Amino acid sequence: MKRISYLLLMTILVSLITSSCNNTKTYAEQLNDEKILIADYIKRNKIQVVKTYPADSVWTDKDGNDIYYLTPASGLYIHMINYGDLKSSDTLALKDIVVPRYKQYTLGLDSVIISNWSTIDFPRPNVFVYGDLAQTCQAFQEAASYLKRNDTEAKLIVPSKLGFNDNLTSVTPLGYDLKIKIQK
After folding, report:
1. Are 158 and 89 in contact (CB under 8 A)?
2. Residue 73 in contact with residue 145, Cβ under 8 Å?
3. For the segment 154-183, what is each residue's pLDDT rounded down to a tens digit?
4. Residue 148 near residue 92 (C-beta atoms within 8 A)
5. I need a labelling partner for 106 at 20 to 30 A (CA). Which of 9, 127, 140, 178 fits?
6. From its phi and psi, is residue 107 left (phi > 0), alpha (psi between -120 and 50) or beta?
7. CA 90/CA 79 separation, integer angstroms
8. Residues 139 and 154: beta-carbon distance below 8 Å
9. Which regions in the chain score pLDDT beneath 50?
10. From CA 9, how far away is CA 108, in angstroms rounded?
């Protein structure tokens, strides 16, 4: 009886260990899944990706689909919505304070809003110094370099390596609707 109980216990233990190992993906597999998810999001939303920065007024194609610029160095996707205060000659400079407002969401079929940028949700937003990578994610720093003016708005597709994931244990790309204010 003891032998049967011991064998049964060992079988259950081996099954648990084996099944838990089969559910764990390597970092390389997670990165591949991330690429597939981004490509699927782009296809589902009929997004046209370009590698040449579009002219200021051309951010949709002839069919009305959004055009996203894929930045060459990092792989950030940017779609400009509003160029902000064009009357002002004030543009973003190193060490300016950037006040971001954003909606953060997942890219899956059932997109989930993770965070909302409205002043109702966050009356005192986080700020960051433009050029100081220690203060925010690489994606926001790079996006700010394209947004440049007060009240500029853009949509972003952010691969995990550019986002807020410090320890790289989660490979999850995110979407952002981003609007910035600049404080000199």
Report:
1. no
2. no
3. 999 999 999 876 555 678 999 999 999 898
4. yes
5. 127
6. alpha
7. 22
8. no
9. 3-20
10. 40
For 31, residues 6+ apart whose C-beta sits below 8 A from its C-beta are 171
Residue type, 161: K
Strand partners, 113: 105
Are 125 and 99 in contact by the 8 Å Cβ rule? The answer is yes
- In which residue are the tokens 């233990």 written? 13
Alpha-carbon gap, residue 156 to 68, rounded angstroms: 8
**Burial class (CB within 10 angstroms; exposed 0-12, middle 13-18, buried 19+) of 76:** buried
| 3-state percent helix, strand, coil for the chain, nearest multiple of 5 | 30, 25, 45
Neighbouring C-beta atoms of residue 87, cutoff 10 Å? 7
pLDDT for the residue 53: 92
Distance CA 38, CA 76 (A): 11
Which of the 8 DSSP states describes residue 158?
E
Dist CA 26 CA 120 (whole Å): 40
Q: In 70-165, which residue ranges form alpha helices assigned H by DSSP? A: 138-147
Residue labelled with tokens 């970092």: 27
Task: Give the span between the Cα atoms of 40 and 105, in whole angstroms.
Answer: 15
User: Which structure tokens are listed for 159?
Assistant: 């691969």
